[in-house]
Amino acid sequence: MTASAPLALVCSVPFECERLREAMDDVRETLVGRKPAWRGRLDGAPVVLVAGGMGKTNAAQALTALLETTEVRGALGFGIGGAYPGGGLDVGSIALASAAVYGDEGVQAPGGWMSTEGIGIPLWQSGDARTFNAFALDAARVERARAALAAAGYDVRTGPFVTVSCCSGTAAGGEAMAARVPGALVEGMEGAALAHVAAIYGVPFLELRAISNLVEDRDMSRWRIRDAAEAAQQAVRVVVGAWG
Q: Which of 185, 181, 180, 191 is nearest to 157 (CA)?
């Protein structure tokens, strides 16, 4: 890949990227895999911004369509997410994934839930390296992004993010899901699918989330979706500037 190649910025729904669209120069609206997308420059850096849709399938389809047609220097998945209690994150906090983990790929067996490693079938294999539920992200790149955010004044935490098909709408459900992934910080619906596709194509990947709510008994009166979306987009600009 070349230094002039764009960075792919992938969120779920358009409101999660509207401030970034407004901040882009030389912006051209387009479609990527029949999904809304924008090409241009963000703070001088070439980017392709894609609203891929909610959930694993939409995320994977959008990033695959982009990577099949465009050379990129990396991909950043971003948006809002729910924080598991005990992880030290509050509503409005920024977090970076150290790993993107499928939380519910596997089998619900009589003895309890079993990951794909328990089944013995990897989700991705490259040479002798086999990847099951957890897609580890490049530690040096994660640290570079964390340091840039810290220098910009963010109190950012790093740790595993859990990707689910069915979000945890109860405190008990969240505790059970978080227990599958030691140190789990954040729950979302797209990250592991994006990391999976990025691994297949050999593209560097990061995931950033701003916390809109805690994973507890569902009470949307306590959620701050718009505020979290704004915070995530501000943080994205910092990470884009530090990508290298």
A: 185
